[in-house]
Amino acid sequence: MSKKAARIGKNTLLVSVGNVIELFSAIVTVAIIARYLSVDEFGMFSLIRSVGLILTPIISFGVARILVREISIDKTKAGEFVTAGLIVNSLIVVPVVGVTVVIAAALNLTSMLNVLALCLALLAAILQAFARTMRAVFIAHERMGYNAAAITLARLLNVFLVLIAIFFNYGYLSLFVCIAVSELVSLLGVSVIVIFHFTVPLQRITVDRLRYLFNESYAIAISDFINRGHVYANVFFIKAFHGVTQVALFQAAQRIVAPTFLMPRSLLIALFPMFSRLAANDDELQRLHQAYRMTMNFVVAVSMAICVSGMSSAPYLIQLLFGEKFSGATGSLEILIWTILPVFANFLLNFLLTSVKKQRVLVVSNGICFLLNIVLGIILSLRYGHVGASWAMLIAFCGRFLVNFYYTSKYIGYVPINNLLLKTSLAGGVLWLMQSLATGPILFAVALIISLLVYIGMLFQLKVFGKVEIQLIRGILKGKRRGAPRRRIKRD
Hints:
Structural class: mainly alpha
Order of helices and strands: HHHHHHHHHHHHHHHHHHH
Mean pLDDT: 83
Number of helices: 19
Largest sheet: none
Helix content: over 70%
């Protein structure tokens, strides 16, 4: 247990480093670009960038998650699966180009500048999808240092290039060039590491292997596309009903919240190989359920603190990152910040369902979420603009979580989520009360630190974290057991 906990702790730390850098670089880059462009220009930039972000999961086709699952079980098949994954990615590129043409016509992108920007956004999406497939090798081998290095390289290079483009005033199109170049460098770096340190992609691959990978991954691809699509569908509704100014306000809030979705990956990517190995053995399903319960406690507790603190600090965040011209985005941020709770928890459910080879049900949950968001998005954004679209997104995310929670309870086992939400909400209420009493940024910063310490103390008092979780934390941090019988630690 001590070696396993230490390995998970090390991998979690390494993934966390990469994700923290990715999170802050994304927020910093968007803030810099928003201050460089006018509100309308930022709205158009966000609209075109959203197209690229929607296309990425189509090209990725969900193969990375299947590769992690299969390679973590049998590492000798790494080269075969990587080759198959890259072939699947390449085959998907052709129809994606056709989809891009349709999107360009639908958005009425007639100017050559915007057409070139869309082409560069598509190129960046293709390069990112290929790099994601290659990085699956790092995760399956639990070598998260390489994964963190690849992410860090791409994001820091993007920040550096954007700063150069803005300093020399190269203009709007150069921002898309920066994104594409950073993704290209990242792909080249990842490819070199994989080939020289892990496996060489095979020159030939069987049709059966391609068929197997396609059949296993298409459900994830559909669910990822629906998930990403419904997130950015509201951008298109707002553009149609209210114009790019409201798009800019909505995207300013969303670009603060969206990078935080990377945070649960730090833990879950490190745990996914273990989930897959436990799920592959029927005798270990009880341990998988115990891991599910403990991980859900951590995920909900952390996300509740982020939601409450983010809502309280929304005016300060908008002012700090985007300036006074984006003050209208505060209302959207106060709503969208609460999407973190269902999204974080849903990440865990996605990994668990994939580990037990039930990833096809994700199509159902994401389909329901997509339809709910489309209906509510049209109704609410038409009347209330970017604020209405924010409410539509929050309700849709909650609906998706409920569906996936049902399936996870069916295939793995039930965890008392209602009791967990009650306890964390009580602690979160105290957290909000302490933060709301502070006035001004300095007093708020002090109140933020003190209130978070009180929040953590309340979690232990309310027994959100019990002895087993405490022992696990100690094992992860120190790599050894303390204070519990050997049998108990081994079982949990």
